[in-house]
From TrEMBL:
Residues 1-43 form the IF rod domain. Keywords: Coiled coil, Intermediate filament. The keyword Cell division does not apply. It comes from Magallana gigas. GO terms for cellular component: intermediate filament. This is IF rod domain-containing protein. Residues 1-28 form a coiled coil. The lineage of its organism: Eukaryota, Metazoa, Spiralia, Lophotrochozoa, Mollusca.
Length: 69
């Protein structure tokens, strides 16, 4: 019985180590996911602003061409 109790205690310790590692990895994944989402939103805003700037420039060019015609 003492041997089984020792084995059980060892298994419980190993389980705790694995659960701690799992939690740590889940937190790390969550942090990286947040970083990626933030970067994705930042790039999306840059693209949208660039597209908007080009559209404004294209509109201005169209106005100039129309006025000169």
């Amino acid at each position: 019985i003492a041997g089984l109790e020792n084995s059980l205690e060892e298994v419980i310790r190993e389980l705790q180590v694995l659960q701690d590692a799992k939690l740590s990895l889940e937190l790390e994944i969550s942090c990286y996911r947040k970083l990626l989402e933030t970067e994705e939103n930042s790039l999306k805003n840059i693209v949208e602003n660039s597209s908007g700037a080009r559209s404004k420039g294209a509109n201005q060019l169209a106005d100039i061409v129309q006025k000169s015609s």
